[in-house]
Design a protein that fits this description.
The protein has about 130 residues and is of the alpha+beta class. The chain contains 4 helices and 3 strands; from the N terminus they run ββαβααα. α3 packs antiparallel against α4.
């Protein structure tokens, strides 16, 4: 689970969060809403480790990976799904190995790579 305990977050002199508490359990889906400048992007930067809290404690299990998509993207020919999947290099490596095993008709290696894929997908917490 992800937990925030008595978090304080400032951007410059502006106080965004004070004594914030949050617990997100595996399998929960949440949404963050609020007006411009209220701290939504800063909260995500905190969760991604890009900034530190000014006070309080943040806990994210070490084996969890947090996937995210930038608020604004440069124009690209890639699909949104490919853009997100490209953010997981390990998953892309496994996909390439599966393709190679298929081309080589190496069924033993294919089984190994599909098992790796199952494990990688089981580690993704949505």
């Amino acid at each position: 689970m992800i937990s925030l305990s008595t978090i304080e977050l400032r951007r410059g002199i502006k106080l965004l969060l004070q004594d914030a508490e949050l617990v997100i359990h595996p399998g929960q889906h949440i949404g963050i809403i609020g007006g411009n400048g209220t701290g939504k992007s800063s909260l995500f930067k905190l969760l991604l480790g890009q900034i530190a809290a000014d006070a309080g404690e943040l806990f994210i299990p070490k084996d969890w990976r947090i996937a995210h998509m930038a608020q604004e993207l440069a124009r690209s020919e890639r699909s949104a799904v490919d853009y997100v999947l490209d953010g997981d290099p390990e998953l892309r490596k496994i996909e390439a190995a599966i393709e190679k095993a298929l081309l080589d008709e190496d069924h033993d290696q294919l089984a190994i790579e599909y098992e790796k894929m199952d494990i990688a997908l089981s580690l993704i917490h949505i």
